[in-house]
Write a structure and sequence with these properties.
Blueprint: H1 3-18, E1 32-38, E2 42-49, E3 55-57, E4 68-71, E5 76-82, E6 119-126
Antiparallel strand pairs: 1-2, 1-4, 3-6, 5-6
């Protein structure tokens, strides 16, 4: 008899989840990036889908204050950049530390490489391979 309340609860949860609007259910999309002020997706967060091959300034409140920069899926990668999109990079070593993708070990804590206070823009590209 104790199994009946458990089954009833599970059915209620399943019914509730299936009735949620689709925008509340996370889906990995090409260009989808979770950006948060805190490490490990904490603090103020924002999720948007960005176009490929375009430079994007960080959303307001996140420029120079981003610890989580987490691209969705492994079909694209992004290059975080020091400076806004309209600024010219004058650093002799470049204005990025390299690419961030779904498997990047620093995507949930850019402070591990001291980039949480540097990122001001980014550019994303499809993860394509060419065959000769």
């Amino acid at each position: 008899m104790q199994l009946l309340p458990l089954i009833t609860s599970l059915v209620a949860v399943a019914t509730y989840v299936s009735a949620l609007p689709t925008e509340l259910l996370a889906k990995r999309e090409i260009g989808g990036i979770l950006i948060c002020n805190g490490a490990n997706a904490t603090g103020a967060c924002r999720y948007d889908v960005y176009s490929m091959n375009d430079c994007h300034d960080m959303p307001e409140g996140f420029s120079g204050s981003t610890k989580t920069f987490a691209p969705d899926g492994d079909r694209f990668f992004c290059f975080p950049k020091v400076g806004r999109c309209d600024e010219i990079c004058t650093s002799p070593t470049g204005c990025t530390f390299g690419s961030v993708d779904f498997n990047s070990p620093v995507k949930y804590d850019l402070s591990k490489i001291q980039w949480d206070h540097l990122i001001e823009s980014f550019r994303c590209n499809l993860n394509e391979t060419t065959t000769a």
